[in-house]
Amino acid sequence: MYNPIFEKEKFKREVTNNVKTLFRKTVDEATPQQLFQAVSYAVKEVIIDDWIATQKAYKEQDPKIVYYMSMEFLMGRALGNNLINMTAYKEVAEALDEMGIDLNAVENEEPDAALGNGGLGRLAACFLDSLATLGYAAYGCGIRYRYGMFKQKIEDGYQVETPDNWLKNGNPFELRRPEYAKEVRFGGNIRVEYDEEGKTHFVQEHYESVRAVPYDMPIVGYNNHMVNTLRIWDAEPIVDFQLDEFDRGDYHKAVEQENLAKNIVEVLYPNDNHYAGKELRLKQQYFFISASIQQALSKYKMTHDDIHKLPEKVTFQMNDTHPTVAVAELMRILLDEEGLGWNEAWEITTHTCAYTNHTIMAEALEKWPIDLFSRLLPRVYQIIQEIDRRFVEQIRSQYPGDEGKVKRMAILMDGQVKMAHLAIVAGYSVNGVAALHTEILKKQELRDFYEMMPSKFNNKTNGITQRRFLLHGNPLLADWVTEKLGTKDWATDLSLMSGLRKWADDEEALKEFMSIKYKNKERLAQYILEHNGIEIDPRSIFDVQVKRLHEYKRQLLNILHVMYLYNQIKEHPERSFYPRTFIFGAKASAGYIRAKQIIKLINSVADVVNNDRSINGKLKVVFIEDYRVSNAELLFAGADVSEQISTASKEASGTGNMKFMLNGAPTLGTMDGANVEIVQEVGIENAFIFGLSSDEVISFEQHGGYNPVDIYNSDHEIRRVVDQLVDGTYGYGNREMYRDLYNSLLNTKSSSRADMYFILKDFRAYAEAQEKVEAAYRDRDRWAKMALLNTASCGKFSSDRTIEEYVKDIWHLDKLTVEV
Ligand SMILES: *Cc1c(COP(=O)(O)O)cnc(C)c1O
């Protein structure tokens, strides 16, 4: 029934014609990149009609709209995903095949849209996919960075960053929308004016401004003709747009504004879970927020005349504190441009903005210095002062005499603007991203706020889209699931996966399941051979840890354990040892020196271990260069073991854990983030859980940590591994190369605590859990059952479920139907 693209012959003609008009070539002469462009434009042609139909449905049905505000959208590639959601993938592959074109090769020509760092940005991308699929009206609002997440090269074992010029060949799916451009103002000062009626007006003068120009990317819903929009803003100089009378003819000003525009959207900050306090970053935040809110309000006002009813039609979801300036910007527009009084404006704002918290780690909390903030955003700062003044008054009346509360909760304190506090005070909802995380927020980090406004707090456990991470990333398993369930409805209702449980004792089904895993391991081995030049054995256990490099994620624990295994194999060559391949993939923020040392260590260990002929290839270590969404899809599909070993309490949710589970890889992990809920769903007997609990970690932290030296002294195998960091074993004879890592584990003299992330404390438990992995893997039937049960139990972790919860508890959206 639904087959927009297929008229196959028409599609083929379209591709041929695109090659001709775009490149003056025939299909045979076209380069792979040119074929990617030609195919993508042919696909966009089909998407456009549904995109128009969706806009028409917006107009006619006037649904409430969620604006998902995020500094990051880690979209990955669009072509294959669009085809999957149009349910046209196989047909297009076939059509192209008839033209002698390999769709897979074409897909590989597309650069990832890597406008994000990791989990937070990928969550935003999964949410957009689910919103469109479930029929909700939504805009993603973000920044069109000229350079996204850097490309990672590994040179001599070290990470080297190179710019990600993702737009160099143009982006076939985007649409520039100059007609929706907005002006965004920075700096200057505020002059107060009184009109005839004695009303106060705040006039910003001597400011610099840029022109925000939106680019729209289609977000194709699955099999429903819905196409939502990711609207990302580019900055252009305002000079040829409209120069304020005051500035006309000011050449220097014009040049400054040109530079401001250039700089503002130049690059994504590559920090994950870390606040750097850079002025340009604050400019980026206000830039896209101001443009997005202006845009949302003008759209609302086109068809509604009562601004007081804004909360009935609009909700702004703030993805972490990065977009929190939205609450003050909305207040500014309501007060200064709509002419509302404070109470009216506050009533609207506090029913329109909602906040998602993503971390409890102190180093990630955004606290802008007041001098910087007030200089850059003078009017917004005045408004925050007033919000703070009223809030502090409220604290004092509710908790008389408790100045400790004021100090802990105020928005403005110690010369800083605390963005999380602003978001909580002005937002009508505060949500954590996994059950454990939300509990920690309520009991520890945000306890004062929870006590004062308990009804705002709620949990929304993260999820992932099965369209990208199973249908697209693992077509063999997707087909098998469809066959076994007798329906493909799992693509939009992942709870149906539980129907696979009945195959968990069926020998034939288990064999099929494992043979698919084997083929995916071969596919991954091929990728590794091509990219790393390392030959790995698909019969070995593929143990995978892919995620941003962060001390709390404990890649160091993993690689220390590899060093330990290597010692074991060397010392006990007589023992039987099941062959293992440890696969890592991780980018470190460019300025995060210790994270980069860990990457170097992993590569050094890989060098030593992979080239030691004496161990007969029993152990291999691979570092995947440039981990990103496109190669992630291969990694999840080809993994046997999912490493989720963060220090308990530190990983708010994790979503990589869910992608592995979906693809049939049991979790080896701590009771942290969403791992807790994964274990609840699959059963603890189908996971490998170890280590300190979050309560234990928090308790140690409240008592100044623990003493790792005791462990070092009492466990000679651990001592040996730690010593190998500084005895030249992995430093090519250089004993200083990993001295800092060694010190981080043992040295209590340094300013921070020794072994802050409890690596040595959890080491033994981890090694024992790894032994259980090996034992379980040796039992082929047991392993197959475990793996299958993971796939069968992943239903909860679809972002469709997460979005339905946001809709029910926070957004209250209407479902839309698109007619074509
Ligand atoms: C899912 C995903 C992440 C998040 O992984 P975690 O293990 O949850 O930190 C990061 N990067 C990419 C490319 C992803 O696909």
TrEMBL record:
Taxonomy, top ranks, is: Bacteria, Bacillati, Bacillota, Clostridia, Lachnospirales
Q: Which PROSITE patterns does this chain map to? A: PHOSPHORYLASE
Please indicate which superkingdom the organism of origin belongs to.
Bacteria
Name listed for the protein in its UniProt record = Alpha-1,4 glucan phosphorylase
Q: What PANTHER family does the entry give?
A: GLYCOGEN PHOSPHORYLASE, GLYCOGEN PHOSPHORYLASE, LIVER FORM
**Which CDD domains does the protein's record reference?**
GT35_Glycogen_Phosphorylase (cd04300)
Carrying N6-(pyridoxal phosphate)lysine, the residues are 659
Q: What is its EC number?
A: 2.4.1.1
A single Gene Ontology biological process assigned to it is: glycogen catabolic process
Q: Which GO terms describe its cellular component?
A: cytoplasm
Function comment = Allosteric enzyme that catalyzes the rate-limiting step in glycogen catabolism, the phosphorolytic cleavage of glycogen to produce glucose-1-phosphate, and plays a central role in maintaining cellular and organismal glucose homeostasis. Phosphorylase is an important allosteric enzyme in carbohydrate metabolism. Enzymes from different sources differ in their regulatory mechanisms and in their natural substrates. However, all known phosphorylases share catalytic and structural properties.
Pfam families linked: Phosphorylase
Tell me the GO molecular function terms: glycogen phosphorylase activity; pyridoxal phosphate binding
